[in-house]
Each structure stands twice: as C-alpha cells, then as structure tokens.
Amino acid sequence: MTKLKIFSVFTILIAFLAFKNSEKILETFSTTYDPAKQDKAAPILFDENQQLEDLKYLSSDDFMGRATGHKGGLKARDFIVEKFQKLGLEKLNGSYIQSFDFKGKSHHDKPTEVTAHNVLGFIKGSKYPDQYIVLGAHYDHLGVKDGKIFNGADDNASGTCALFSLASYLKENQPKHSVIFAAWDAEELGLQGAKYFVENSIVGQDNLILNLNIDMIGRNANNELYICGSRYHEELKFDLVPAIQSNKIKLSTGHDGADGKDDWTFASDHGPFHKAGIPFLYFGVEDHPDYHRDTDEFSSINQDFYIEATKVLVRAFEKADIMYK
Hints:
alpha/beta, Aminopeptidase, 9 helices
C-alpha cells in the first residue's frame, strides 16, 4: 500500500469518526437545550383571562386591603372559598376554613388577640394519596392606613389568583401526589397562617413532602423571577430547578443565604416549612417601588410576566410530582 493510499484511507477514517462524533455532540446538545421544547410549555389548561379578572377583583377597593381580622380580609376569605368550591376542590377535615387565634400586633402596631383564617382545599393523588405537596400563597395584606387602601395587587393577590389557575389545571390533570391548595392568612403579621398549618397539620407533618410558595409574581423591571430554597436540597437544585426554565422570563436562583443578597429563607410562608425540615421552593420577585405602598395596584401588574410565571409554576409542580416517589 502506497503512502498516498494510506493517507487517503486515514483521511476517510478521520472524516467518518468526526461525523459520528458530531452526531453525538448534536444529540447531547438536543437533550440539554432544544429551543422548540424550551418554548413549548406543558399543556396549559387554565383560563388566563379569568386569572387576570380574578386578580383585578381581589386587588380592588372592594376588599379594603384584605387585612387579617377585618371586614375586607373576611370578604377575601369568602371569595377564595367560593373559588375553591367552583373549582371542585375537596375539603380538608370537613371544611375549607382553618381558623386559629394568635397574639400579636395589629396592622397599627397595637398588641391584640387576632382570629385568622387559612383557606384550604385539596386534590387527591392517583398514586401517592397520603403524600402531600402544598401549593401556598398568602391572601392577606395591609388594609387601610391613614385613609389609604393598600390593595396589594402583587403582594399577594398575584400569588392567590395563581393558585386558582393551578387548581384548574390539576383538576384536569390528576397528579400522582395529593395536593393541598393553601391560601394563608396573617402572613403580614408574622407568617402566622403557614406556621399554624405546619404545627397543626391536618394530614400529619411527616406526610408533607414539599412546599411551593408563591408570593409576589406579578412584575419585575428586569423580567426576572427568583426561585429561592434550592440550595438546601440537592434534588431541588440539580433535578427540579433546571427542568423549569423559560424563554419568556429570566429565572434566577438565590436569596437563600449563600449569595450575599437579602436572605429570603424565612421571609415568607415557606419559612415554617423549612424550620420543620420540609423542602420548599419560593417563587417571587425582588421588592419594587410599590412594595407595601398604596400604589401596589392591578394597573402596575405586568400581565405577560404574571401569566408566564404561573406557567413556570405548573412546570415546577409537574416535575416535582414525577420526581418525588
């Protein structure tokens, strides 16, 4: 065999191996990032317009800022109960309402005895009916101060109304695990609703396998939604979070004590779950200029961002439902 023939055969062999290797590279790339797949969400069966209408209503003056223990807060409670009934959610322990008393300060910083009301509904899981994923969002806000109504459109009517859409979706797509939909009361007074639920769990604390907390998902100037809590549990960090990326909004992890930013580990209703050793992910945005001001209105909600954030939550739940066994 001449050198030319050897060179030709060698060249052909190299070209063939390079082609096969390129196929493998393309195959690997397609499993890690496929634009078509990334842009295509799981089947979304909730009514986006209805979600926006619910948010507009719940953050209107009709509810007088939804303060715990006040007329507007009770009206919000009744509205949520009505929504849970229409969605066909089952009652926990014979009632949608979990009432409790606690000693604390009122929204006017006066010591007081407060009666609050969580609203709870659930869907029974098809495979793991005794294991519960808790989808939670607080519905209370700051009420009326100095004659101004604090309507709390983003904080946290946005999360509460996202619960309705998640419930609508999961009623049509029965999950493997049972799901508790929790509209917490008295978050603004020290996470009291979630704390009471965890410490007095109707289904048993050991049966609570994950909390997905939704608090302020309605707007962000940088089009960025944070996912807090994944660093505490490897299965969340390496399996769940990477599976819920979005092409439409930026998803960032952090605010969990490891990145030098404000630590949100106990900043919202996921805090009591974390304290009890129950894994959590908190979905929310960084504070904006209308946070805890009377200017937090429906008109300031970024509707496209808000709907996409809710779709991200659907993906997060679906991945969790598959992942936990």
